[in-house]
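DNA 5'-3' helicase: structure tokens wanted.
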Amino acid sequence: MHSETIKNYTINTEYELYEPQRKSIETILTCLDNGESGMIESPTGTGKTLSILEAVVAWVNKNPEKLEGGQIYVTTRTIKQASQLIAHLKKMKNAPIMNLLASRRHLCLNSEVSKSNDIDSACKKKNKDPNKEGRCKYYRTPNEKEQERDRNISLPGVFSIEDLVSAGGECNSCPFYYTRERQEKATIIFSPYNYIVSERISTALKIDLTGSVLIVDEAHNIDDVCRSTGSVDIKRADLVSLISRLGTGSGMESPEVANSMMETGKFVKKIMNYLEETTDVLNKLDPGQCVINSDNQREMSIPSKEMISTLEKMGISKLTIDDTFSSIELLFKDMIPDDYFFQWITQIKDVLKYIMNNGENKYGMVVSSDKISFLLLHAAAIFDPIYEKARSVILLSGTLEPFQELVTELTTKKNSFKHFLSADHIISQSQLYTAEVSQYNSVPILGTYQGSKHPDYISTLVSSIVDIAHSLEKVGGVLCFVPSYNMLTLLERKLEKHVKLFVENKNNSKFEYELEQYRRYCKMGKCIFLCVFRGKASEGINFRDHESRAVILVGIPYPNIRNHSVILKKQYNDRYLSSTGSKWYEQQAFRAVNQALGRCIRHKNDWGSIFMLDSRYRSAVRSLKISKWAIASVNMIMDKTKLKDTFAPFVLNQKKTPNEEEFVKENTSYPVKRQYPSYSSGNFKRFFQS
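Answer:
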């Protein structure tokens, strides 16, 4: 056991801390002591998770009175990532009482309800009448819990999601409702951060950030999540479904409900009429006057100054919005028990009310023949209220810089974040090989629209990727990231002729299967996992040691410049924020690049290589858009000979280490068949699908 003092706090750990951990703990403790906010960037593999928990536990145990009734919310992107944090906390002594907030999808024990497409609605419907026959056997009223105490879930101060589900099953009691009851008793609460960002979810879960500490791990996408949370689509298909549900009335409704049905019908009809009119307008436009979206539909944006008048054409105004939506909400309360539609309607109302109250400049409105989209353009509309309530807000990730641009996106408050840390990596330069490949075998590699039209562009990419994979021999596999699924499909057909290839799939079960097979086979070398920037493989998955001996970056994943959400966001930043639209656009691309790079090195004794296949990376390296740990030394590769001269010796040196010699000796082959097994919701790992 190792013990040391940081800012007058005793930190006890199993091993000696890394320097990035010391600095991270010190920064977190400073924020907690002073009730201030901060941002911490610490590369993947530097022990960031342990830093969070060590600082929080030490601070809580020494200063329980400073929370003054508040709590510490430790949030991350998914339940799986929250579970990893809890696993670390279970090993710590004197850990405070914790709680885990998770959805019914992760916690429901009822086999009938858990198979429903809308688990929340199915659960509420089944338990609406506590005395009704057929009620869920795991659900219990407060009186029943008092009378049948032997059926109450009993858990220690720190528990995992598996512990919770197992305990609920043993005593036939609902884990989901147990976590709601435990809420007030807990000092540390773990949850996905969308539970905090969404006002609707946080209200339903009775989350009160007043005087509390909010820690957001893996916070590199927090601004995107805020904008997404504050946006909403009104789809023609949903309107049709709503009308269909209204038509299922019995004819015996109360006058109040009947009136609500009539008012809702009028409201929906006005929106449908507007969509019909929009379709006529779009069909008359020249192709250059509109944008073709991902669904191959024409769409156009409505200027912010015309947004209010456009809404009034649909019968939506400051005077009518509350009455209109009260009528709709009444129907969902008394007639249509459907959580999806209720949440959708509530979101529409919240967005439109914000727009009506002088918020139209923060929104973009995009219409097509099939839907109307209201796009939030500044994350501060969502994040500011969170920041104002909390005692401290601490954001952490392996990729947060540049800090000031992120601050500008998240808040309008001056001096909001006072503490910033950009930690170094814990590896030596000898453990990493980085190369920039601007051309290969005399063919330029440039992934722009024009550059990718070069007749030899794809074949040159394939040659360079295959040569890199073969250069690794039997020391491990390659993660190759591409900008889009279209590019992935194109390269898949070419690469599978030369290497053992596994491909990221949008389908969860197929992705898990491909990942499992890659992990088995990459031990033999000449093996590639073809992935997409911002995809499932780019974060949240631990590719250890031989699973990522090389990370290849093909092109730069800029957002689609013709997408209306991108166009409007750039225009908004140019007009209203200090960080320009062009800066935001660049940051979106290189944040994704740096996230992919984080798959390379996972711990102090790890080693790996990075290959940047695009001539634009040369200027990116010079302007420090790439994570600094990855570009301490950059090789220039132009052909197979140069690759052999510089990369082969690096690999050879790594193979001489004791761990690698043993690894190569034990290497065995595995048969691989890309045949997907069938997965059902019952036997797949549903606890960790988030």
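Residues 490 and 622 are 31 Å apart (CA to CA). DSSP finds 27 helices and 23 strands in the chain.

Cheers.
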